[in-house]
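note to self — DONT lose this again. spent like an hour looking for the file last time. sequence + predicted structure for the chain T wanted, 494 res
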Amino acid sequence: MNKPLGVLAGIVIVVGALNTAGAWYTGSKIEGVLQAAIVQSNQELATQLQGSTTHGTLELVSIERNLYSSTAHYRLKIQDDKAGPDAQPVELLFVDNIEHGPLPWSRIKTFKWMPVMAVNNYALEKSPFTEKWFAATKDQTPLKGQVTMGYNRSVDGHMELVALETKLDDNSTFSFSGLTMEAQTDAEGQNLKAKGYMDHLKIHAVTVDKPPVLVELNGLTLASDLKKTPFGFYLGQNVMVLSEGQLTYGAAQSVIKLKNFEYADSASANDNLMSGRLSYKVGEVTLDGKPVGSAQMVLTASSLDIPAMQSLMQIYQSKFQPQADGTLPQTPLTPAEQVLMQVQVEKMLAAKPQLALEKFTIKTENGESQFNVAMSLAKPASFEGAPVEVTKQMLTALDAKLLLSKPMIADLSAVQAQLVGQTDPQAIAKMASMNSEMAGVMAVQTGLAKVDGNNILASLNYAEGQVDLNGQKMSLEDFITAMTTRFGGVASQQ
């Protein structure tokens, strides 16, 4: 035998032997690994669904072990309390073809030579709950994916919802391009990264007594970069971008279209305190092809006491969250719960949280309006004092500014007239102008704002018991009296 070929053959034999030994070892351990993963998944499900009416559990139904591969079957049960006590839970069945490491064939043929513990190739199976879903995908599995588990317990996953087109009823249709997701986590799922993309989704709903409705979404991108906190939940960044959305509705089949919608949130923790930012942006809105405008909103918060928030959330979920039938719980707070709630509120305020609507802008063809407000809170010496004194101590600072464009009001009034079916251009223009002027008059009459050219302006600043309303300074007591007089008088006249 040629010497280089002999060396190569020897390497192949050695690698094959090692892979066989590794596959046997992995096969003997795979059930324990799966059971541990299922326990962790159920714990995570319980955490993420906490506070909702939905519950879910994953279980290993069976496993068949072989030398180089194993086949496992899972059952996912989903129960929604709103469905009522007699409703059967949704059951989803999955089959998982597991390739044992260290060198699964699916990785070898794609030139991925790094040893791994296993490659899981899972797919949704047909069941009474998924028959229609399978029919819509022409009997292909509608959900499938692959998960690669490293020896360091890291996970690299791919999931796919396949494309489908189906009839919802005799006249309505649903079209879906499919969606792909990629995700990576480290050992114990402490760090999670994910990204996904959907090309389009279309729902065309037609009923006998109502005009057709068409909903279209195009170019949806999702991305997350999260880290698990010691408090059991994830913090980090989430982004959702929609290239275009469209709604066609009404007797006139009006078309509202938005482009470049962006949602983003970010949050971080420093010891027990959390800070976060939430933003929305709509790049362009049109109605029947005519421009309406754009909008943006940014909310921020800082110094939020995490344990106190969690405790208050638990009280809310047990005492104030609507039940399955939509009614509120009838059990009042016990004296102990009232004390606990006050203690947690005091902890929240002791952290001196800051809340802000940093930006809220609406821009139309002829004008742009802006609003922002920020406030700082603190723990008062006691909640038993006079309300004004408690407010002075609890609200340490507030600053708000409003710029309301009268041309923008006119633009949106014209859009509103079109939405309710008005078609006369002159009537629309007259009503829009009247509404914008009326807004200015009402602002001046209430004393809450002033008019400067085409803009309605208002500002409010509060600090150390003193209020500055549009340049007029007064004590907090005088401000409360003035507001009570103005709006109390208006209410009594109505």
